[in-house]
Amino acid sequence: xxxxGANFSGVDLSExxxxxxxxxxxxxxxxxxxxxxxxxVWLHGAWMSKAILCGTKLSGAILGETAPLE
Length: 70
Known about the structure:
By secondary structure, the protein is low in regular secondary structure. The chain contains no helices and no strands.
């Protein structure tokens, strides 16, 4: 699954099973990931303000921000 830069803000993605997906740079403001399997998912540079992660599997997920260029 490749949805780089997609906007899923406010979407109910609870229980979604997408291990290894590429969601880099996506927008997930207020997205509900309750009980989701995001193991090994690429979330580098994703905006996850107020995302709900209760019971979410995140083992091996790649998180972080993109460093600003100087």
